[in-house]
Amino acid sequence: MEVPMEGEPIQIHSYKHNGHIHRVWDETTVLKGSRNLVIGGNDRTIVTESDGRTWVTREPAICYFHAQLWFNVIGMIREDGIYYYCNLSSPFIFDGEALKYIDYDLDIKVFPDMTFNLLDEDEYERHRKEMKYPEVIDQILKTHVDKLMRWIRQRKGPFAADFIDIWYERYLTYRR
Q1: Which terminal residue of the chain, N or C, has fewer Cβ atoms less than 10 Å from its own Cβ?
Q2: In this structure, what are the phi and psi dihedrals at residue 79, rounded to the nearest 5 degrees?
Q3: Distance, CA of 76 to CA of 78 (rounded, Å)
């Protein structure tokens, strides 16, 4: 697997289990790139949905992807604090074209006070049946939902107190 270079812009491609494209983020600046970890930053980037609709993100965000974890985390910097959107997903790959992962429907939204909600359980169940997620994937995802909740409660990884601020400062150096 190739490794994205710090400072370079990359696309992020999200797929569904059936191989269909789900969503594309047009440009994210790589802040840290290794075989196991990619941290990126973006602000007002164009997002294209599977049906061709586009929209633009509203605020700066720091993205956290790990090659051994079945989730990724987006920390969105808003006036009233940092909100996190966590996608249960396959570990990422980077193929030189884009950072890619499979979105498995379940999401956790985390608020600035670190309370959180598990979202889209009904969508997950529907897609699990429609796309025939293997039992092993179902078990891995349930395990990683628990792991992600522990990380949130323990303020671990991207949820650590200064994580988003430190990486956002790095992102701003590339924007100048």
Answers
A1: C
A2: -60, -35
A3: 6
Global model pTM greater than 0.90:
yes
pLDDT of residue 1 exceeding 80: no
Q: Is 12 exposed, middle or buried (0-12, 13-18, 19+ CB in 10 A)?
A: buried
**Residue 40 carries which side chain, given as an amino acid letter?**
G
Residue of 105, 121, 92 lying closest to 28 (CA atoms): 92
Find tokens 């994580």 and name the residue.
163
Q: Which of 23, 58, 150, 176 is catalytic?
A: 23
Residue 66 backbone phi and psi in degrees, to 5? -130, 140
Q: Is residue 33 within 8 Å of 3, Cβ to Cβ?
A: yes
Q: Which residues are annotated as a binding site?
A: 87, 103, 105, 107, 120, 123
Tens-place pLDDT, residues 99-134? 999 999 999 999 999 999 999 999 999 999 999 999
The domains of the chain, with CATH numbers, are 9-169 (2.40.380.10)
Q: Which amino acid is at 108?
A: I
Q: Which two tokens stand for residue 101?
A: 């992962």
